[in-house]
């Protein structure tokens, strides 16, 4: 079990609190109108810690985007893994079919080349085109 009084744990907690507070402040007021003072107050941290942990407001802004991208990857990772598994099963099924009856293989290759766009609002797989 970790000791919350250890410097590294407190530093991680402070960084996390500053990122969360900055995310709220940037979304409410935008980058230019957001103030380090308000972010620090919302995080219940010393304003100087923004510079210490992130090098300033711009570094904190980038940390917010890193946090958001990590959250997106965490949520979409399982979906992408399922899609890859379905594609592998489709390819396996197409390889086990007789040569004359391989319509699935053309669908699989078309689907595999178009599956990243399926993450957008309009899927370009053969099934949706």
Describe this structure in words.
With about 130 residues, this protein is mostly helical. Helices cover about 75% and strands about 0% of the residues. The chain has five helices and no strands. α1 (about 5-35) crosses α3 (about 50-55), α1 (about 5-35) crosses α4 and α3 (about 50-55) crosses α4. It is elongated. Mean pLDDT is about 80; it is low at about 115-129.
Computed over alpha carbons, the radius of gyration is: 23 Å
Instruction: Output the helix-strand order.
Output: HHHHH
Instruction: Outline the low-pLDDT stretches.
Output: 117-129
Helix content: over 70%
Return the average pLDDT rounded to an integer.
79
- How much beta, percentage-wise? under 5%
Mass-distribution shape: elongated
Spatial separation of the terminal alpha carbons: 53 Å
Q: How many individual helices? A: 5
Q: In this structure, how is the largest beta sheet organized?
A: none
Kindly state the number of beta strands: 0
Q: Helix/strand-derived class?
A: mainly alpha
Structure at a glance:
Helix content is 73%, strand content 0%. The protein is mostly helical.
Secondary structure: elements and pairs:
Layout (H helix, E strand, L loop, with lengths): L6 H27 L2 H8 L4 H7 L2 H40 L6 H12 L15
